[in-house]
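Give me C-alpha cells for this 230-residue protein.
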Amino acid sequence: MSGGEGTKLWYLKNINLLRGMSAEQMAMVENHTVMREVKRKEVLYLPGDAGDRIYLLKRGVVKISSLDSDGREVILALLRMGEVFGEEAAFDEAPRDHMAEAHEDALLCIINKNDFLNMMRSQPDLAFKVTKLVGFRLKTIRSRVEQLVFKGAPARLASVLLDIAKDHGVPDDDGVRISIRLSQQDLASLIGVSRESVNLALADFRRRGLVEIEGRAIRVKDPQALRLLA
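Here you go.
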C-alpha cells in the first residue's frame, strides 16, 4: 500500500477527522472509500436526497446551502480541504435537508453510510470525533443565525469576510487574499441580505481601505478594523 503524495492514502492522512489513526485503521478507511473528481458547480446532493454517503473533501471547496422560506439560497458553509460533510447521515435516517455543491473543482473521498457506521463501531475514537463534529456544526449554524438577527449588513459582512479569510486566505504583504472566487451574490447568500446591501457595504469598506477587490478576488487589508466592525 503506497502512501506517497497524491495517492488516496496520502489524501486520507490529511483529512482532519482521520488524523491519529493507526496504519491498520487507515487501511480500513482506504479499502472502503472511492475517490471522485468533481467540477465547479457540480451538485453532489439536494434536499430530499437519501443520506447514504459521507464525503471527505481532499482538494477544492464545497458549498453547503439551503433555501429560506422565500426560496432564496442561504449559504451555510464553504468547506475547505480536510473537512468532512454529509456526516449527519450517520445519525439520522431522514433525507438530506440541505444541498452540497462544488464551489471550485474538487477531489472527494466517498464512503458508503453502512461502511462508515461499521468503522465508527469498531473505532470509538472516530465515533467520538464525528459526534463532536456534528455538535460543532450545529453550534456554528446557531451562531450564524444569531448574527443574522442581531447585526446589520456591514457587521455581518465584516464577520463573514474574516471567517473566510481565516479558512481560505493566503497572507501576503498587503493583507490576506481570499483564495476562492466570491461574487457579491455569494456574499449576500452567506449573510442573508440583498446583493445591493453587499455592494454598498463593500464600497464603504474599499473607501476606508479595509478591503481591496480585483474582479471576484478580495483581499482583507485591515483585519483589525474589520474585527471592530464585526
